[in-house]
Write a structure and sequence with these properties.
Elements (H helix, E strand, L loop, with lengths): L1 E6 L2 E4 L4 E9 L6 E7 L6 E7 L4 E3 L7 E6 L4 E6 L8 E8 L14 E2 L3 E6 L1
Parallel strand pairs: 2-11
Antiparallel strand pairs: 1-3, 3-8, 4-5, 4-9, 5-6, 7-8, 9-10, 9-11
Length: about 120
C-alpha cells in the first residue's frame, strides 16, 4: 500500500484558481492509476480527474477545460490545477491510487488507496 498526502486546498472566490498536490509515499510499483475525487456534503464521492501509468487522462464533464491533472514521477507527486473555479466545485478533494484493473477510471470503486482529503471552498 501507499500513503497519500494532499495539500493546497483553501478558500477562493469564483473565477479563482487553486493547485492541489498529492505526495505519494511507499512502494509505487504496481500503481496503475492516480486520481482526484471530491465529495460535497450530502453527496457521493465523484471522480474529477484521473491519469493512468501511460499518461492518459480522464475528466468529469463538469471540470473539462478548467481542471488539469498532471504528475511528477521523479518526485512522486500528483497535481490538480483548478482554474475558473465555481461555487459548485466546493467539496473535500481526495487523492486516490489504484493497483487494480479499472473498467471505469472515474468511479471510486476502482481505487484502493486514499488520502485524508483537502477542503476546497469557492464563494460566489
Amino acid at each position: 500500500r501507499v500513503q497519500l498526502v494532499e495539500s493546497g486546498g483553501g478558500s477562493v472566490q469564483a473565477g479563482g484558481s487553486l493547485r492541489l498536490s498529492c505526495a505519494v509515499f511507499g512502494n509505487t510499483a504496481g500503481l496503475n492509476n492516480l486520481g482526484w475525487f471530491r465529495q460535497a456534503p450530502g453527496k457521493e464521492r465523484e471522480g474529477v480527474a484521473v491519469i493512468d501509468n501511460n499518461g492518459r487522462t480522464n475528466y468529469a464533464d463538469s471540470v473539462k477545460g478548467r481542471f488539469t491533472i498532471s504528475q511528477n514521477n521523479a518526485e512522486n507527486t500528483l497535481y490538480l490545477q483548478m482554474n475558473n473555479l465555481k461555487p459548485e466545485d466546493t467539496a473535500m478533494y481526495y487523492c486516490a491510487a489504484s493497483t487494480l484493473i479499472i473498467l471505469w477510471p472515474l468511479h471510486r470503486s476502482g481505487y484502493n488507496n486514499w488520502g485524508q482529503g483537502t477542503q476546497v471552498t469557492v464563494s460566489s
